[in-house]
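Q: what does this look like with guanosine-5'-monophosphate bound?
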Amino acid sequence: MNFLEERIQKDGVVKEGNVLKVDSFLNHQMDISLFEKMGEEFKKRFEGKPINKILTIEASGIGIACIVARYFDAPVVFAKKSKSINIDGDMYVAEVMSFTHNCKNQVIVSKKFLSEEDHVLIIDDFLANGCALQGLISIVNEAGATVEGIGIAIEKGFQIGGKTIRNMGYQLESLAIVEAMDPATGEVTFREQ
Ligand code: 5GP
């Protein structure tokens, strides 16, 4: 088991409805030493890629993205969730279905912060059905920028997102891939990587 899998075993809580709670170290209280190890690992996995920008989505991707960004010496841009329909032409917009909140959000990024010169590493905390990632990818494409890779902390391998994104041809690196989890026993099984 790697450092993140060990931490999930120790402190993750399996909830009903295929939800893994990791709020004691990842997306509410944040363990920055753990994030640094994640940054180091992503740096290795995306070695040689000309990454000059990190893109994530609010809120829980931001903390991880900021620490990862230090390893790539690149700024972080986060897509903002917006309920408003009247978005002016200065924004890239994508529709994203939220897995945890079961609602649709528009996510927006200002055109000022993403352009065809950008080589983007997308970072997020979780990958489930892949809606959040698809929204971010479409924003990068709309900007004419390049997706150099996608780094995820925890992929739920029993949901469709990972397969879909890999089939699209992207280098998707998930530090922990949960193959199965049982809310009754709390047991979490990881995919061998
Ligand atoms: P997707 O768009 O891939 O279906 O879901 C990704 C988003 O939903 C992530 O950004 C994350 O915030 C949230 N999410 C999905 N599954 C889980 C989960 O099991 N636990 C937590 N805490 N968040 C999740």
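The mean pLDDT is 95. The beta strands are 13-15, 19-21, 53-57, 76-82, 91-97, 104-110, 119-127, 146-156, 172-181, 188-190.
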